[in-house]
Design a protein that fits this description.
Layout (H helix, E strand, L loop, with lengths): L11 H12 L5 H14 L4 H8 L3 H14 L18 H11 L12 H8 L4 H10 L18 H13 L5 E23 L5 E22 L5 E6 L4 H14 L4 E6 L9 H6 L3 E5 L10 H13 L7 H17 L25
Helix pairs in contact: 1-2, 2-3, 2-4, 3-4, 6-7
Pfam families: DDE_3, HTH_32
Organism: Bradyrhizobium japonicum
Protein name: Transposase
Length: about 350
């Protein structure tokens, strides 16, 4: 039975809103029908005639006539529905996070989704995975960090960064370091055609060693060019021999050499007295990333050494020398953008993301 029709009285403001809703091409069909019902009802139309014109049941027309008459435009909106009670709540989320703070079960290196679900007992593993994804928690990926305990970190870092952003006038700034034990590995290489027609390039897992070489390198900060030599070992004598060749490359020039804290780089006062134009600057302890030549070593590894094969140590050395020559032909200086380097300690803080 259809309830008695309610009279609908529209204000000018409400009529403009409903008419605009009817004209808009982006209005939802449900909202469009409700607006038309109220407008037709305000014009004095009967419930049945409105239902026939709009294409709904008379009880639907009666519902929205009553809703508008009682609550105005707000009555045309859907009321919140309770819905199904969630199985898992914020309490469940807190339990998962609390469990992640604890060590994994004995014998396991890290937590996994199934291990978390098993430890919780009443939480499905699929919810555990959804929760981890929503909080961007990766149980597999691992990051490493190194915390410097150098009490003079700030002063040393400022000294090195100062040489990058404001080098002394008429002086050469060099970043010096070694890449030790580069292996001359001989591997079978070529293209492998798969049954599906794809062709992949790769190398064999089997290899033959032909010795190692240590590469001493100095990067000129102003130009990005590299000075490099090979050595069998990386003792103090080899380091000073390399520095002799570097100073010979820049005669009568003031040199500022940036070095890490390797023992062979230090306690060279006698050599420095014999070369008064050379000054050593050391990066803070456990902060060799401040040395720009480390960036170049990474480029060397990626562009020249990874995935190559050598039949002799001499071939490896010639290969590196050829790359250095090619790199110097197109060398550009690295742009150091970070002007302030601060020391932040991790102790007492939970590391959630790096």
């Amino acid at each position: 039975m259809i309830p008695e029709a309610r009279e609908v009285h529209l204000s000018r403001k409400d009529r403009k809103v409903l008419e605009a809703c009817c004209r808009s091409p982006v209005t939802l069909q449900r909202d469009l029908k409700r607006a038309r019902i109220v407008l037709l009802a305000a014009d004095g139309r009967s419930t049945r005639s409105i239902a026939k014109e709009v294409g709904v049941q008379p009880r639907i027309v009666s519902l929205w006539r009553h809703r508008y008459a009682d609550h105005g435009l707000e009555g045309l909106q859907d009321k919140p529905r309770p819905g199904k009670q969630p199985i898992y709540t914020k309490t469940t989320d807190k339990r998962i996070l609390k469990l992640l703070d604890k060590p994994p079960p004995q014998g396991f290196a890290r937590w996994t989704g199934p291990l978390l679900a098993e430890a919780l007992g009443d939480v499905d593993v699929q919810y555990v995975w959804r929760f981890l994804r929503s909080h961007k928690i990766d149980l597999v990926a691992r990051k490493s960090w190194c915390e410097s305990n150098d009490p003079n970190f700030t002063a040393k870092a400022a000294d090195v960064v100062g040489l990058y952003v404001a080098p002394p006038a008429k002086a050469i700034v060099l970043c010096v370091d070694e890449k030790p034990s580069i292996q001359a590995l001989e591997r079978a290489q070529g293209y492998l055609k798969l049954p599906n027609g794809r062709a992949l390039t790769g190398q064999s897992h089997d290899y033959k060693r032909h010795g190692t070489t240590t590469l001493f390198a100095a990067l000129e900060v102003a130009t990005g060019k590299i000075i490099a030599t090979h050595s069998k070992r990386r003792r103090r004598v080899e380091f000073l021999d390399f520095m002799n060749s570097v100073t010979a490359t820049f005669p009568n020039r003031k040199l500022h050499d940036i070095l890490d804290n390797l023992n062979t780089h230090k306690k060279n006062e006698d050599w420095l007295k014999a070369h008064p134009n050379v000054q050593f600057h050391f990066t803070p302890t456990s902060a060799s990333w401040l040395n720009q030549v480390e960036v170049w070593f990474s480029i060397l590894q990626g562009q020249s050494l990874s995935g190559t094969s050598f039949t002799s140590l001499k071939q490896l050395q010639e290969h590196i020398d050829a790359y250095v020559n090619a790199y110097n032909d197109r060398a550009e200086p690295f742009v150091w953008t970070k002007k302030k380097v601060r020391q932040r300690r991790f102790k007492g803080r939970r590391i959630t993301q790096l």
